[in-house]
From TrEMBL:
InterPro entries reported for this sequence: Aldolase_class_II_sugar_metab, Aldolase_II/adducin_N, Aldolase_II/adducin_N_sf
One Gene Ontology MF term: L-fuculose-phosphate aldolase activity
GO biological process: pentose catabolic process
Enzyme class: lyase
PANTHER family named in the record: 3-OXO-TETRONATE 4-PHOSPHATE DECARBOXYLASE-RELATED, FUCULOSE PHOSPHATE ALDOLASE
Residue ranges of every copy of the Class II aldolase/adducin N-terminal domain listed in the record: 10-187
Entry's EC annotation: 4.1.2.17
Species name: Sporotomaculum syntrophicum
Lineage of producing organism: Bacteria, Bacillati, Bacillota, Clostridia, Eubacteriales
This protein's name: L-fuculose phosphate aldolase
Length: 218
């Protein structure tokens, strides 16, 4: 594999460790992947190895049909979920699948996360839908997630967790963090009153201003 692929593996280990430290996953749950310069290939975490002991040689290179190209380990049991998203979304460069508490609570309640915070609208695009229930690790779950994704960067998995995607691993990770925080705020707001939803015109304006004006312009 190329030096780029080796760099992607290092990045994957770093983001995996951050995800575990931030409490987005526990033990060996959750998984993440990143596309390689050959768009038909991606690197994914292995099945059943905890993030704190994961090393580069544990990572597996697969193609978007799910075939193992490089690596000795068995890939994540959600391999087909990642493969289906890469096949359906040409712009997806990385995918993070977490089992964080508040996103999972919404997913169990079957509640869509409406646009309620500006950073949610900026990073995620707005509403986060719940994909119909399908058992973990199945091709049916992969299809359900692709159906629910649309133009969003995140989807809640019924009775399961969350998938976030981005053009980079950092972005996919940030999407999961922002959805988790927003889910927490939404649940708390609904406990003390009624969450006020940002209206479509404002959602569009926030998105536009973020895409064209945020950060250090070069
Ligand atoms: Zn999972």
């Amino acid at each position: 594999m190329s030096n780029v692929a080796e760099d992607v593996k290092v990045q994957l280990l770093k983001v995996g460790a951050r995800m575990a430290a931030a409490g987005l996953v526990m033990g060996t749950w959750g998984n993440l992947s990143a596309r390689l310069p050959d768009k038909n290939l991606f690197v994914i975490t292995p099945s059943g190895i905890s993030y704190d002991v994961l090393v580069k040689t544990d990572l597996v290179v697969v193609d978007i049909t799910g075939r193992v190209i490089e690596g000795e380990r068995k890939p994540s049991t959600e391999l087909m979920l990642h493969a289906a998203i890469y096949s359906a979304c040409a712009q997806a460069g990385a995918i993070v699948h977490s089992h964080s508490i508040y996103a999972s609570a919404l997913a169990v309640a079957g509640k869509t996360l409406p646009p309620i915070l500006e950073e949610q609208v900026q990073f995620v695009g707005g509403t986060v839908s719940v994909a119909r229930y399908a058992r973990a690790g199945t091709v049916d779950l992969a299809a359900a997630v692709v159906d629910a994704l649309g133009q969003s960067k995140a989807v809640l998995l019924a009775n399961h967790g969350l998938v976030g995607l981005g053009s980079t691993l950092d972005e996919a990770y940030q999407v999961c963090l922002v959805v988790e925080k927003t889910a927490q705020v939404y649940i708390l707001a609904e406990l003390i009153g009624k969450a006020a939803i940002i209206q479509p015109g404002d959602v569009a304006a926030i998105r536009k201003s973020y895409q064209t004006g945020y950060g250090q312009q070069v």
